[in-house]
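Why does residue order matter? Because the sequence determines the fold. Keep that principle in mind as you read this record.
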Amino acid sequence: MTFTELGVDQDLADALAIKNITEPFPIQAQTIPLGLDGQDIIGQAKTGTGKTLGFGLPLLQRLGKDPEPGVKALVVVPTRELCIQVADDLATAASLRSTKIASIYGGKAYDGQIQQLKDGAQVVVGTPGRLLDLVGQKVLSLHSVEVMVLDEADKMLDLGFLGDIEKLFAQTPASRHTMLFSATMPGPIIALARRFMNRPIHIRHTDPEDGLTQANIKHVVYRTHPLDKDEVIARILQAKDRTRTVIFTRTKRSAAKLVEELNDRGFPAVAVHGDLNQEQRERAMAAFKIGKKDILIATDVAARGIDVTDVSHVINHTIPDDPDTYLHRAGRTGRAGKTGTAITFVDWDELHKWGLINRALEMGISEPVETYSSSPHLYSDLDIPAGTKGRLATSPATAEHGAPHGKARNDQGTSGGRKHPQDKLSRPRKDAAPAAETATREAHGQRRNRRRTYRSNAPAA
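Structure:
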């Protein structure tokens, strides 16, 4: 099946084909025809299954090929990273149209975002706080909105945005077309849908062979020691099938510490967390997406905005707080139908928390295997080459440009069994040790002479 067979305009399908997006995912095939007919939709599917185009294509098609200036469509998202991602996806689909798309989120200067609105943007993708801020400043008007979308609605509930969402709904016409998409559907979100949607159809997308977790993701759970985690991670990063990797930590401090540790070990890693300003976060995400850095360390604040199809591994440096967070973290891999591996570290005092996640998601891993960096099963489980160590000694050029992990030297300072040129330069000369010893003896002698002079010249008591 193709997008045009679903009723999507040819120019939208052509724009997607330029990016090699030619066949709709199942959730898209289910929701696009209904969305094109103006039907209110509650779309529920696991993360990474293509929900953005499920609402994006009906939204763009409703506005027409050459829409008049002014905000006609509003997409509300919970995080800055997801805002950027959704806006990029919509811009890709609308690249053959005159439609302008504005991304509105906090942590960035107002001027550029206000200018996008003044330039006549017809589609606004934004986070609740900044949207309400601009509405309050009379810069953004939502009175002509024809289509409103809530994306990742459950995360907005988790972040306490429910009240803001209600205020945004109140700013839009009651006749709008409304679509709500989420991976999970808690009670308050269902109640919100009943209040603001017109007889919505609830679409739940599941695969017959799928459990609560995606079937194309391999889940590995280890009971680890906190002091050995960094070493275990460094060895996992050298698995044969690893490409891009996302590592989740619980705190900003641990993310900053881990990125420093991995860089010191020779791995090209960047971090995204709340202590970084928006420009730093965007720069880190861009480096990860284009492959300049292949390891991204993030706190959960960034989880919903990471949409890169070739993430092979997700590592939970610290166990998620609940089953939903586990699903959203693991969902960064195995996207767009590809396979992936999700690895979770469980500390001894967090076994009860893992028990809750295991039971809720029916994973069948009741007892995580006790695992150390030297454990043989670590190598066999994750296809790590025998003898792999946790440090890559890189040349200055490699360190600067972030060469792939397999190309760097191992911790014995060799590459393919050959001595590295830097090794020869770093060896001390044969006369270096005697010279150093002579200098040390002379320094000690000078200090002894100064002490004797001080005692001989000291005044009598």
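The mean pLDDT is 84.
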